[in-house]
Each structure stands twice: as C-alpha cells, then as structure tokens.
Design goal:
The chain is an alpha/beta fold. Helix content is 35%, strand content 22%. It is built from 15 helices and 21 strands. The strands form 5 sheets. Strands 1, 2, 3, 4, 5, 19, 20 and 21 form an 8-stranded mixed beta sheet that branches. Helix 4 packs parallel to helix 5. It is globular.
C-alpha cells in the first residue's frame, strides 16, 4: 500500500465533530484513505512538503458547473425572457434542436470536470443548463461524462437531467409552462437505467443521482416516480427550488401552493434531497426542508449576479438545516463562493451574524452530510484522502488559515489536488489535459452557441440587441501592421 506524508504550514483536520487547525501539521495517506493527521511524525513514508500552504479537505460541490455556462451571457442583459433565457413561441413551433453535437456535449463535461479539479473540488454533482438543449440531457453524454470523471480522477454523482415540461414566453412577456409528460417519464426511466448501470464504478468514485429539472414544470407523476426510484437505490435527488418569482407564480397557479409545499405534498422531499438556491424561501419553507431531512444548497455567486441572496444563512444554520455549497456558474470557484457567502450574509443580517468557518463547513462537512457521507469533507483517519492544497505564497496571511482563505485566496491558488489518495493535479497541471488547447476549443464552441442565440430569443433580434456592449466598440483588422 502506497504511503505518502503531506506537510504544510496549515492543516485543517477534524476532531470531536468539528474541523481543527494544525499549525505545522501533517496528513499521512495510506492507499485511498487518511491514516493520520497531526504534528509531523517520524515515518518512512514518502514526504511532500508544501511549505506555506493549507492542506484542506477537498470541497464538496452539490451543484457543480458542468457545461459552458450560458448564465454569464445574461450578466448585464435583462430581462432574461427578452434575451434568450426562455424559449419564445416561435422557437417551440419550429422545433427545438440540440445546439451542440454529441462530441461537443462530451467535451464540455470533460472540460468542466477539469476546471472543478483546478478549483479544489473533489466531489461534484454536475449541473448544466437545458436552455440550449432539444429537451433534456442524454445517457450518451453521461456515459462520456463517466469516462471523463474516471480518467481525471474526479469523485462524481452522475445522472442526466430530465423534465416533463419547460417554459415558453409569448410576445407580451407572459411565461407559461408547456408539457410533454410521456417524453419526460421516458427520460426518467432512461436515467434510472443509467443509474443502475454506473453506480459504484471506478472503485466507488462514480455514484448515481437523479436530476429532475425545475419544480415549476415537473408533473406529479414525474416527482412521485423520481422519489420511488431514488428511494430504492438510496441515491440523492437534486431539485432546484425557490429561485425566482416565475417559479413561485407558476407553481401557485398550477398547484395552489409554494414549490416546497408541492414537493412535500407529492412525497418528493426527504433525506438525500438536495435543494439549490432557496433565495425566495419563507421561514415556513426552511422549516419544511429541515423537518423532511432535506438539504439546502447555497450558491452565492450565481444568486448575487441576478440580484438575489439567501435570507438568511445564519437563520438556516441556527435552526439546524443542513446547508451545503454549489458553484453553479462560471468560474466554478468554491473559495469565491465562500467569500461571497460571508459577505452577503453580513449584508442581510449584520457583520457579526456569520463567520468564515460557517461557509467552510458548508463547503466540506455540509456537503458530506447532505450526501450521507461521513468519509468526505474532513481530514481524519479513515476518511477518503480527498485533499485540496492551497498555496499561500501570494496571500497576505492573517493569523488564521480559513480567514486567509476567504480574504486573500481564490480557486487559482489551488496548487495540488488529491482524490482517493491519488494526486490528480500537480502544480496546476492535470495529467492528460492540454489546458491551453481545451480552453481554446471551449471558447470556439461557446462562440458558436452565442451565434445561435437569435433563433431562440423572442422576436429573433440580432446579437447586438441581445447582448448590449458595455461601451461603443471599434473592431480592427488584427492582421494589419
């Protein structure tokens, strides 16, 4: 069995149910597990000294960006229903189509998985937009995603997103739900067959999940069948919730209740149910989530970009609600999300309402708890050896490493990543990945998607009207001397 001793200025270990900081500490890896955490021991194991760095538990991303994120196209371009974020009637009538080829869909998963690793994320539950899809995600692209995760060494929970309905906007700006329940239920059965086939692959690093898309367009039959299948497998279900006024309005109009009440009423809420966002939740909603044993997934960056925030993180934590973290948007930077999470909570509830460790706990222990895993999100003997090494050479260090992490660092400071005791990134290089080539290919693919935006934007305006530039632009011939 391979034995490796990692040492650094700071090690975030785990004792008596909580993280603990070791200054000038060490982590001993034996095989795929942590064997020891504490002061540097005398050992004949291979030693790697990281110096001024943090040895952190790898981050658990419950809503992990896994495509080329189209939400950044809406950053300064509102309202979304006018800017290609909701299908217009005319696009639905002509027949939606896939805007990426199967090869492009497979590539973007592999590209996104590498970016997650670069940001210290060791466990990921992928999320991608269905706006640019014909209807839902496919088993074929998730077979490719499983191959990519296995090759890269990422720990993942995989399952293609499926849906019984979508949103369509008319010329007046009215958004309504449209349904194809038979198609959605077929997608669910395909996802269930995929789940049974891949669960436990790669020595257990690849697990199954279920990903019904959007409460406001999920029929009762889809929710009930999802709950039954996931319950039989013991697999997590991720269901976006309480993230927009549109969602609240559509659920109220169709079902006469709030989204969380709708899930609970249909038996589609319980342990291993992961609920990203919650920015439009009431106190009663939070209580229902907690009492059902479900978990809230906090995604501060994507929410803040759209003018929203969680109301409120301190209240959720104080009432005993399990809170994990998700990146959801580009960049998939968990450190940035933690820092913004502290900032937004203090804006909502005052400067003393939350401390840095609350967000660090959410990104590690909270995510592990949401998945029912006591072997993730912590560095303690017996836990999986999933470790993010964060370089502090460019940081202005405070007396505390977690506070330094949230005030001076970003995902770009992640130097090495270990998953299952294997070093999957070394000095920001991932074996088998040509970073420059992949980023060039990703940009070209994204540019082709942008070029197709007018086809699915209300009124089909030119790109210059969909994406309004920040300033007047003068484009010159780059080849002229």
């Amino acid at each position: 069995m391979t034995r490796t001793l990692l040492t650094a200025r700071w090690v975030i270990g785990y004792e008596d149910g909580a993280h603990v900081v070791h200054e000038h500490g060490a982590v001993l890896i034996e095989g795929d597990r942590v064997a020891y955490v504490g002061p540097v021991p005398a050992t004949d194991a291979q030693r790697i000294d990281y110096g001024e760095a943090i040895l952190s538990p790898g981050f658990v991303d419950l809503d992990a960006l896994s495509d080329l994120d189209t939400t950044i196209l809406g950053f300064d371009n509102f309202p979304g229903w006018k800017k290609g974020r909701v299908w217009p009637d005319s696009y639905l009538e002509r027949g939606p189509y896939e805007m990426y080829s199967p090869e492009e869909l497979a590539f973007q998963k592999r590209f996104a998985f590498a970016e997650l690793i670069r940001n210290g994320i060791t466990t990921a539950l992928p999320i991608a937009s269905l706006f640019y899809r014909e209807w839902s995600e496919t088993v074929a692209e998730f077979d490719a995603a499983a191959d990519a995760a296995e090759a890269l060494g990422l720990r993942v929970y995989l399952g293609p997103a499926y849906r019984t309905g979508g949103q369509v906007v008319d010329a007046t700006g009215t958004i309504r739900a449209v349904y194809d329940e038979a198609r959605g239920l077929t997608g669910l059965e395909d996802a269930a067959a995929f789940a049974a086939r891949i669960d436990g692959r790669a020595g257990g690093r690849i697990r199954a999940m279920f990903a019904p898309d959007r409460i406001e367009t999920c029929t009762k039959a889809l929710l009930r069948r999802t709950a039954a299948l996931a319950g039989e497998m013991g697999a997590p279900v991720r269901q976006h919730c309480l993230q927009s006024e549109t969602e609240l309005g559509l659920v109220r109009d169709q079902h006469g209740c709030t989204p969380i009440e709708y899930l609970a009423r249909e038996g589609a809420l319980g342990p291993l149910w992961l609920l990203p966002h919650g920015t439009h939740a009431t106190g009663a909603d939070f209580e229902t989530i907690r009492d059902a044993g479900a978990s809230l997934v906090h995604c501060p960056l994507v929410s803040a970009r759209h003018g929203g925030f969680l109301r409120s993180l301190p209240r959720c934590l104080s009432m005993g609600l399990t809170v994990g973290m998700g990146t959801d948007t580009w960049p998939p930077d968990m450190i940035l999300n933690m820092a913004l999470g502290v900032t937004m909570a203090r804006i909502a509830d005052g400067p003393e309402s939350v401390r840095s460790e609350a967000l660090f706990d959410a990104a590690t222990l909270g995510g592990a708890r949401a998945l029912g895993r006591d072997d993730l999100g912590r560095l303690v003997p017996g836990a999986k050896a999933d470790i993010a090494v964060i370089d502090l050479s460019a940081a202005l260090q405070t007396p505390d490493p977690v506070q330094t992490l949230l005030t001076s660092c970003s995902g770009r400071d992640v130097r090495d990543v270990w998953i299952d005791g294997r070093r999957v990134m070394r000095d920001r290089e991932i074996p088998g990945v040509d970073t420059a080539s992949d980023r060039s290919r990703a940009q070209a693919q994204f540019d082709r998607l942008i070029a197709q935006y007018p086809e699915r934007t209300l009124g089909h305006p030119p790109l210059s009207e969909i994406f309004v530039p920040s300033y007047r632009r003068r484009t010159h011939d780059r080849h002229r001397s």
